[in-house]
Every structure is written in structure tokens, then in C-alpha cells.
Amino acid sequence: MNGISGGQMLIALGIGLSVLILLILRTKLHVFIALIVASCIIGLGGGMKGNDVIAAITGGFGGTLGSIGIIIGMGVMMGKIFEISGAAERMARTFLKLFGKGKEEMAMALTGFLVSIPIFCDSGFVILSPLAKAISRRTKKSIVSLSIALAAGLVITHSLVPPTPGPLGVAGTFGVDIGSFLLLALAISVLPAVACMFYGKYLGKKIYQIPSETDDGWIRPPYQSSVSETADTECETRMPSTFTAFVPLLTPIILILLNTVLSALRITNGVASIFIFLGKPIIAVSIGLILAIYTLTPKKPRKEVITELEGSIKSAGIIILVTGAGGALGQIIKAAGVGDYIAAGIAATPLPVILLPFVIATLVRFVQGSGTVAMITAAGITAPIVAAAGGNMVLGALAACSGSLFFSYFNDSFYWVVNRFTGITETKEQIRVWSVTTTIAWAVSFAELLVLNIFM
Question: Is the peptide bond before 221 cis (omega within 30 degrees of 0)?
């Protein structure tokens, strides 16, 4: 530790993180700049030389983005294609037909669960909320139960499952295999989604609200069971077929999973080597994006498609910068030796090391609202600590992602999207509708992590 005391490193870390939170909450500086400033404070305060601080920042930034920056960009472009082509809505209608009358909440939850893998949850909810409203009007099911099921499915996979940018950034920072991470993330996403769906069904009876038949407003009649068909056939002809809608989404997932399975079984000869190559995340997502462009937008002019793709890249840019800055912060913590020092302290206690990324993500989420920023910040801070303590890096990454689900409220844009499109205006009801829902997902995922930590 270059003669620097552990106490000095902890003080530097504490000051750096305090400055990070202060800059995010109280200044005009963007979180990207705040992360770089905090990295400098921690590095210099921890005893590193100036040149070493710069080298660690640039090395951590480039190393993180070298693995996932390309995937983030392509994932965002794929999401835009799903949005403008109607593929996301086609998925929703498919699940409604599949599950049938009386299981509309399950259909909406599964739709959100899959749609948010390539699409940001905010966009996905905006796209699909008219469908939820139409179902509520036709079936007399409370819009609250339908919206909670849809939004929960969206936010859970948005927070846990690659190739959504946040989980990708966390996976890159922790240096874990994306295929293994994707498999485990999908597995632990199911129970939180189911729990939130049942909560939505319960709350839909307490806050029974349906769309008005005569205008765009909402009414609250006495509660009644669903009474009519679920399918809304309007605009069916303008959407892609079910097969066409699902192929671009499922293809990269299947390829990545094949890569993971074949590599784990050490089958690397012949045809297997081809699938291992195609299952590399960059290649798999590239194939999915190309399929989406050519199968979902065949009648759209070339210029329009390119314009939409370029527009989507603008939203990816800041995510890439923040992800890279999170990697820089992690590298600083590692290079300064503070990660080793904290890890030694944690190793001497009975506490699971995965508590650290989970708690930090929870705190950052509550303080500043963005789940993506919370998980990336937590990953940057704790990845070197988890590694030094000999913890399971995949579980550490999932812990950072899970912590970011905690209690969505006023400082989270999705809180307003869900409540606004659901017609909920009273603060007390807004908290019951969405803040409690995300906290249920947070608690269930944490319980799953504790169980997995026993066996992994």
C-alpha cells in the first residue's frame, strides 16, 4: 500500500464518495463529470501520484468500454427499431391471446419482462400503455393492476438482464461472462416479477380505476370483475407478424446462451466453434440488430431508418460515458489499494461480501433516483472489493443491479411515467402504485441473492 495507512485510504474514499453524492445532488455537474472528480479525489487522497491517477482513470474507462461499449450502442439502436416498427406492441398482443381471458396481468407482465431486454423501460411503458388502457376499458380490469404488472416486468429486466445498458455496464465493470450473467439474471428476475404482479392484482381492487368511455379521463366505479374480450384488433395490419417481431430479440439471446453452454462443456471443435463465435455478445447483438433492421422496417425509407438509428445513438452516448466513468472509479479504488483494505475487513466479519454492492446501489438509488447510475456507481466502487475478498463476481454484479430497484419515488423519471399514464395523481396512491412495487422487487431479489450466496 506504498506506506499509506488504511485509515487514510478510507478517509479518501469517504471524502470522494461524499463529494460524488454532493455533486450529483446539489450542482449542475453531470454524473459523468462527478464520477471523474470523485475518482481523482480518492486516488490522490489515497496516496497515488498524479500520473498514476490519470493512468488508472483512462485504463479503467477504456477497459470497461472495450468489452461492452459497442453492445450498448447496438442494443439502443435495436430498441429504437422495436419501438418504431410496432414489434413491442405485437409481443404484447401475442401474449394476451396466448394467456386468454382473466390472465391479462400475467400477459402484461411477461410482455414487459421480454420487451425491456432491448428497450428502455420508460419507452416500453409509453409504447404499451395505450394497450393496457384499451384492455382496461374492454375488460373492466383496473388500470392499476395492469400497469403495475406491465411496469414491473419492464423495470425488473431493465435493471437485471443484459443487453440492457445498465446491467451490461455492471457486467463489464465486474469482468463477468455476459452469458453466465444473463442466464442467472433471467432466473432471479422471475420471482420478483411474479410477486409484483400479485401485488398489482391486490392493489387494483383497492384502487379500482378504469378509463372513461366518453373521453380520455378516468372513473372509479364500484369494483367489478372482468366482463369482455381482451383483444384489440385495431392497427393489427400495421404491425409485424409474431414470428418477425420475436426473431430479432430471441436470436442474440439464443446465440449467447449457446456460446455459454458450449464453452462450459468445452465443446470447441467443428460447428461448435462457429456457434461459439456467433455467440460472442458483440456478434450476437450485431446479428439481432441487422435482423431487426431488415425484417421489421422493410417498407420504411432508408433515410428514415438511418435517422432514427442516429437519434437513438444520442441517448446511448451518455450511458456509455457514465459506464466508462464507473469503470474508472473502480480502477482507482483498486489501484489505490483501498479495495484490498476494505476486503480484508469484510473477510474478518460474517457478513456476505455481496451485501456491499447491494447496499451501495440501494443508497445511491434512493438518493439520486436513477437505477442505471446507482448500479454502475455501486459496481465501480465495489467490484475491486468483491474481487479482493474472493467473492463471487457474478453474484456481486447481480447484487449491484438488484439494489438499484429500491423504492422508486419523485427523483425517478419512471415513477412519473407509470403514474401519469395510469392516471394516478394523489401522492399517497402514487407511492402505493409504484414505490411499493419496486421495493417488493428489491426485497425478493435480495432474498434470492442471499440464498444463491449459500450455494455459489
Answer: no
Domain residue limits, the chain: 6-219+237-455
DSSP conformational letter for 354: T
Lowest-confidence range among 143-152, 248-257, 395-404? 248-257
- Give the three-class secondary structure for 219: strand
Q: Which residues contact 430 (CB under 8 A, 6 or more apart)?
A: 415, 419, 424
Q: Rounded to whole angstroms, how far apart are CA atoms 286 and 173?
A: 22
What pLDDT score was predicted for residue 184? Answer: 93
CB atoms under 10 Å from CB of 285, counted, come to: 28
| Residues 6 or more apart in contact with residue 147 via CB below 8 angstroms | 129, 132, 200, 418, 421, 422, 433
37: confidence class by pLDDT, cuts 50, 70, 90:
very high
- Classify residue 100 as left (phi > 0), alpha (psi -120 to 50) or beta: left
List pLDDT tens digits, range 46-55: 888 999 999 9
Average pLDDT over residues 51-62: 90
- Share the mean pLDDT of the chain: 84
Residue 428 has which C-alpha cell?
399517497
3-state helix, strand, coil in the chain (%, to 5): 75, 0, 20
Instruction: Kindly state the DSSP code that residue 431 receives in the 8-state scheme.
Output: I
Query: pTM for the full model?
Result: 0.71
With CA atoms as reference, report the closest residue to 98 among 87, 113, 86, 111: 111
Phi-psi region of 3 (alpha: psi -120 to 50; beta: other; left: phi over 0): left
C-alpha grid cell, residue 153: 416486468
Give the DSSP H or E segment for 333.
helix 302-336
Per-residue pLDDT, averaged over 39-48, amounts to 88
pLDDT at residue 339, as a whole number: 66
CA distance 230 to 436: 28
Which tens digit of pLDDT belongs to each residue from 321-349? 877 887 788 788 778 877 667 766 765 66
Which phi and psi (to 5°) does residue 34 adopt?
-60, -40
DSSP secondary structure string, 266-307? T--STHHHHHHHHTSHHHHHHHHHHHHHHHH-TTS-HHHHHH
**Residue 234 pLDDT > 60:** no
